C-alpha cells in the first residue's frame, strides 16, 4: 500500500507538461484533460502561469515561483478533497530542484513530459499568438526567451518523456501523452 491507502501505483498522480514558450503546453494540457473526460477519469487541469500571475514579483523571484508553489499546494488540497486524483499541469520546470518542488507541493508522484518543436515553428506560433498584443516588447521578449529556455531545458534533461510537436497536431500530441501515461 502507498501513502494514499491504494495499491502501489494507484492513488493521486500528476503530469507536468513542460517546454519552451510557444510550444503548446497549455493547449495540449487542455486537450489531454478532454481525453481524460472522455475516458471518465476525474481530473484537474492547471495552467501554472495563472497561479503566479501577479505584479510585482518579489526581488530575486522574477517568475513568482514561491507564490506558484503556495497556490499549487492549496489548489491540490482542494481538488483532492473534491475527489480528484489526476492532475495535468502546464508550466515550466527548468531544473531538477524545480521539478522536486512541484512534486513536494503536489504531494504525489509527478511525471514530466517535455514538448519540443523546431525553433522556427515555435517562433511562427509565437508571432500568431502575439498578433494582437498591445505591448510592443512582448513578442521580442518571447522570441528571445523561446531559444534560451529551449537550451535550459536541454541541459536540465528532467523529462520522463519527450514529444516533438513540430509536425503533430495538438490532439495527436495529447494522444501520444495519453498512450504514455495510461491514465484513461
Query: Total strand count, please?
Result: 5
Tertiary shape: globular
- Average pLDDT across residues? 91
Uncertain stretches of 5 or more adjacent residues: 1-8
Report the sheet with the most strands, covering strand number, pairing sense and barrel closure: 5 strands, parallel
Give the strand order of the largest sheet, numbering strands 1, 2, ... along the chain. Answer: 2-3-1-4-5
Percent range of helical residues: 40-55%
Instruction: Please state the CA-atom Rg, rounded to the nearest Å.
Output: 16 Å
Number of helices: 6
Q: Kindly report how far apart the N and C termini lie.
A: 22 Å
Name the assembly state. single chain
Task: Name the structural class.
Answer: alpha/beta
SSE pattern, N- to C-terminal: EHEHEHEHHEH
Q: Into which percentage range does the β-strand content fall?
A: 15-25%
Structure, explained:
By secondary structure, the chain is an alpha/beta fold. Helices cover 46% and strands 15% of the residues. It has six helices and five strands. The radius of gyration is 16 Å and the shape is globular. The protein starts with 12 loop residues before the first strand and ends with a helix. 29% of the residues are buried. The N terminus is likely disordered.
Keywords:
alpha/beta, 184 residues, disordered N terminus
Short description:
The protein is α/β, with parallel strands linked by helices and 184 residues long. It is built from 6 helices and 5 strands; from the N terminus they run E-H-E-H-E-H-E-H-H-E-H.
Amino acid at each position: 500500500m502507498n501513502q494514499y491507502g491504494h495499491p502501489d501505483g494507484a492513488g493521486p498522480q500528476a503530469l507536468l507538461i513542460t517546454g519552451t514558450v510557444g510550444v503548446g503546453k497549455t493547449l495540449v494540457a487542455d486537450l489531454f484533460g478532454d481525453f481524460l473526460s472522455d475516458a471518465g477519469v476525474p481530473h484537474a487541469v492547471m495552467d501554472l502561469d495563472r497561479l503566479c500571475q501577479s505584479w510585482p514579483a518579489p526581488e530575486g523571484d522574477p517568475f513568482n515561483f514561491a507564490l506558484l508553489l503556495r497556490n499549487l499546494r492549496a489548489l491540490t488540497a482542494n481538488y483532492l478533497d473534491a475527489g480528484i486524483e489526476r492532475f495535468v499541469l502546464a508550466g515550466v520546470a527548468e531544473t531538477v530542484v524545480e521539478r522536486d518542488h512541484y512534486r513536494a507541493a503536489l504531494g504525489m508522484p509527478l511525471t514530466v513530459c517535455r514538448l519540443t518543436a523546431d525553433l522556427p515553428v515555435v517562433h511562427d506560433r509565437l508571432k500568431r499568438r502575439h498578433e494582437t498584443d498591445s505591448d510592443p516588447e512582448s513578442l521580442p521578449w518571447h522570441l528571445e526567451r523561446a531559444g534560451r529556455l529551449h537550451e535550459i531545458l536541454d541541459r536540465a534533461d528532467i523529462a520522463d518523456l519527450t514529444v516533438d510537436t513540430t509536425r503533430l497536431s495538438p490532439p495527436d500530441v495529447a494522444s501520444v501523452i495519453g498512450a504514455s501515461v495510461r491514465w484513461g
